[in-house]
Design the sequence.
């Protein structure tokens, strides 16, 4: 009896130590108790949770599994299921949460935990049914509403998602995830200013949440109210808050400082899947010189797909799945691979792993491809750019990285398919010119609509085709109506497969670019389908992507330097159908024979940039 009382006292002391942040002492006491009795399920569970909180998931699993084997109660099963979920073992996690419902159908959050796991596994219909059932039977909670809002947004139902997100904030005004989810829903509904406000609130409530802070930065990229200076300042604030604490992870590298040896290059991305970066990354990977560069891929794809298997096959045993590995562990993996140059492909985009780069696991670190901006990190040495995205005299003080200029373009492009064919100019059979933009709806805003409306007013009978889901179309029609353009001149299309999306260009005569965030993949896809895109160049690198594409295509006349010039350029094209037909017929060939379509030449240029950065490292600061 005394021994049991002593064990209970020790366990209570361990729990108090854990709550006060003295985790090492708490862990030591739990281990003492387990040594005394391997059947002490409370000590086993407590140690498992301590290890879970410190990111030692494999060890945590062992102790929680032992606790559940002795005492399979819902509380222990919940903890074990969450560890499985964090490890990415979603099938086992779902089975574990399902056991709880069998034991106690009314156990708090049992349905919610199972639903979240199913949603992560892509079993969306069953997950949604469980969440809706949980909402019916109660109790209502911020976490339940956040889960519903997230899943509905994933299912492209932003309006009901927004309603649940607003309810989540009502229930949990001091819970950061509610504001973060509200920001996502508002952004999807085109409410940029409100979305940014919600993201800021999420960061205020939980200053340590680096993902919400990154989403704030990306939302700012899409809002014309924020310039490069403001975005750069926010990126540096992100680095100060989320990267600076990792400075203690920095230590010397043992890489051989031979400036001319074969280099190990690692690419880090959450988008090794069906994603727009394919059109740029795949042609580069296929043309890297294997005698000079050994390529590693570090993938944090949330839901792998058949395209992920292409990347996996390309890299072979140099493919690293880091989606369920904490940032510090991922950094150690990079270091153990002896990577010489580590390349970030996402910046602050969803799923980015900038905290890995904050640990500087490689001697040289570079940012490329995600978008033309800055990470804000002092541990990323360079950003890849070109003479058009960052021309002479451009303000490079907005970047935390030094600029590595490629001589022609900072992208190469491949359609990665042979179909569909370029067809005759649609206006010849339609009897009117159709302008179009297939950029993401998130890039659209009222200032853009006002500019495009000026074009439509100048070209009698002209129509405009936009990529916008059903929920967004009413607002777009209203915005154009305020500019004197009637709804019957607007056409819309929703989400499609890539083949169907490309075929849509067969109904568009002239593309209109977005600002301040120009199109890149969409502009090059349009060119491949014979559609020239008129672009408005601007002060930020984001608004000079279209300039880079037009200049490399040898079509400087597509670049406007003012809104008046943008309107004049689009109208002039629309009034000369013979010229437009000739341009359409030759644009694909022009793209394929330009620097943009020459993957071998681009690969040599980017490899030369990598080699330059490496030589600088080898010769010292």
Sequence:
């Amino acid at each position: 009896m005394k021994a049991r009382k002593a064990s209970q006292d020790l366990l209570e002391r361990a729990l108090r130590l854990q709550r006060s942040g003295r985790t090492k002492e708490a862990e030591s006491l739990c281990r003492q108790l387990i040594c005394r009795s391997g059947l002490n399920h409370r000590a086993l569970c407590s140690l498992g949770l301590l290890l879970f909180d410190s990111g030692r998931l494999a060890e945590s699993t062992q102790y929680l599994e032992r606790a559940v084997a002795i005492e399979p109660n819902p509380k222990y099963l919940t903890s074990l299921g969450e560890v499985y979920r964090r490890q990415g073992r979603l099938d086992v996690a779902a089975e574990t949460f399902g056991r709880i419902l069998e034991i106690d159908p009314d156990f708090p959050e049992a349905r919610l935990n199972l639903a979240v796991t199913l949603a992560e596994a892509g079993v969306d219909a069953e997950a949604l049914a469980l969440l809706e059932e949980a909402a019916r039977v109660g109790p209502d909670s911020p976490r339940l509403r956040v889960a519903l809002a997230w899943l509905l947004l994933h299912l492209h139902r932003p309006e009901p998602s927004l309603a649940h997100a607003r309810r989540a904030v009502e229930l949990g005004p001091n819970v950061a995830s509610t504001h973060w989810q509200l920001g996502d829903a508002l952004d999807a509904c085109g409410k940029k200013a409100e979305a940014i406000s919600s993201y800021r609130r999420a960061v205020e409530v939980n200053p340590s949440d680096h993902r919400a802070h990154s989403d704030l930065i990306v939302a700012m990229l899409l809002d014309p109210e924020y310039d490069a200076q403001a975005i750069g300042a926010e990126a540096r604030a992100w680095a100060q808050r989320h990267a600076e604490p990792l400075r203690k992870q920095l230590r010397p590298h043992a890489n051989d400082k031979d400036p001319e040896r074969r280099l190990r290059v690692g690419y880090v991305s959450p988008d090794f899947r069906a994603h727009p970066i394919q059109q740029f990354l795949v042609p580069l990977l296929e043309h890297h010189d294997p005698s000079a560069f050994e390529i590693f891929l570090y993938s944090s794809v949330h839901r792998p797909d058949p395209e992920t298997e292409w990347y996996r096959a390309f890299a072979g045993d140099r493919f690293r799945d880091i989606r369920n590995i904490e940032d510090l562990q991922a950094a150690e993996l990079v270091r153990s691979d002896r990577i010489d140059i580590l390349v970030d492909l996402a910046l602050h985009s969803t799923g980015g792993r900038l905290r890995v780069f904050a640990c500087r696991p490689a001697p040289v670190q570079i940012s490329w491809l995600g978008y033309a901006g800055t990470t804000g990190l002092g541990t990323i040495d360079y950003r890849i750019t070109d003479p058009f995205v960052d021309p002479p005299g451009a303000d490079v003080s907005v970047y935390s990285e030094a600029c590595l200029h490629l001589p022609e373009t900072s992208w190469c492009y491949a359609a990665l398919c042979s179909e569909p064919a370029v067809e005759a100019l649609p206006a010849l059979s339609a009897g009117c010119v159709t302008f179009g933009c297939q950029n993401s709806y998130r890039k659209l805003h009222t200032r853009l609509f006002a500019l495009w409306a000026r074009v439509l007013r100048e070209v009698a009978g002209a129509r405009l085709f936009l990529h916008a889901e059903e929920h967004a179309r009413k607002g777009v029609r209203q915005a154009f109506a305020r500019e004197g353009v009637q709804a019957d001149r607007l056409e819309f299309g929703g989400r499609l497969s890539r083949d169907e999306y490309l075929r849509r260009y067969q109904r568009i005569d002239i593309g209109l670019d977005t600002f301040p965030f120009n199109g890149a993949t969409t502009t090059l896809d349009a060119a491949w389908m014979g559609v020239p895109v008129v672009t408005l160049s601007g002060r930020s690198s984001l608004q000079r992507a279209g300039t880079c594409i037009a200049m490399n295509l040898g079509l400087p006349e597509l670049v406007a330097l003012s809104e008046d010039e943008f309107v004049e350029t689009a109208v002039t094209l629309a009034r000369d159908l013979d010229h437009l037909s000739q341009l359409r017929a030759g644009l694909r060939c022009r793209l394929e024979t330009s620097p943009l379509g020459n993957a071998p030449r681009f690969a040599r240029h980017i490899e030369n940039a990598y080699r330059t950065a490496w030589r600088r490292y080898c010769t010292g600061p």
